[in-house]
Amino acid sequence: MKSITIKGSERESVGKAATRTIRNAGMVPCVLYGGDQPVHFNAEEIAFKNLVYTPNVHTVVIELPGASYNAILQDIQFHPVSDKILHIDFYQLHDDKEITMDVPVKITGTSPGVLGGGVLRVNQRKLKVRALPANLPDFVEANISELEMGNKLYITKLVQDNFKLLQPDNTVVAQVRISRAAMKAAQEAAKAAKAPAKGKKK
């Protein structure tokens, strides 16, 4: 999985007044969990643009004076009106410990059902994956090349390479629905087949 670097500075004061001062200075208060003890730090709000405002997922390298940590974003709080980032929680990664993340689904291939007039519906935009940090994928590939009209692609059909998908086996990732136009054409064809030929004697 791709990684981005966040440079920050550790903070000692964690009260409301100190937090308000940090936000007023254009910084975001953060906490890193998963180590021996929580690490409180802050970083410039612009540093989180490529981490938060993207459909992709990344691991994070948190660089603080004298220390560096590998982590993932665990929780984020936004202001209810301005949507400014108020607070972010990170979780520290350890090479020998599996981690669970929501990873985007990438649709690949061409569905015969879609070519025949069907409509593709993606039921799962993200899937929950569990793996060692080194094996976390950038995305989970969902190949729709065998989906005929009316078919469904179940999670059991997806390739799990050094990671485990945590959804139930009956989870539908994508499906090809019959479009209104295709349904109407099928109904008209059925009516035409039942109707007696013109000029045919009874």
How would you sum up this structure, described in words?
Residues 98-178 form the Large ribosomal subunit protein bL25 beta domain. Pfam families: Ribosomal_L25p (PF01386), Ribosomal_TL5_C (PF14693). Belongs to the bacterial ribosomal protein bL25 family. CTC subfamily. Keywords: Ribonucleoprotein, Ribosomal protein, RNA-binding, rRNA-binding. This is Large ribosomal subunit protein bL25. The structure is a single chain. This protein has 202 residues and is α+β, with helices and mostly antiparallel strands. The chain has two domains: 3-93, Ribosomal Protein L25, Chain P; 100-181, Ribosomal protein L25, C-terminal domain (RNA Polymerase Alpha Subunit, Chain A, domain 2), CATH 2.170.120. The protein has helices at 16-24, 49-52, 112-115, 180-194, and strands spanning 3-7, 9-10, 27-33, 39-44, 59-64, 67-78, 85-92, 99-108, 119-122, 126-131, 140-143, 152-154, 164-165, 172-177. Strands 1-5-6-7-3-4-2 form a seven-stranded mixed β-sheet, covered by helices on one side. It has a four-stranded mixed β-sheet with strand order 11-8-10-13, with no helix packed on it. A hairpin with a 5-residue loop joins strand 3 (27-33) and strand 4 (39-44). The longest helix is centred in the last third of the chain and has 15 residues, at 180-194. It is elongated. The model has no long low-confidence stretch (mean pLDDT 89).
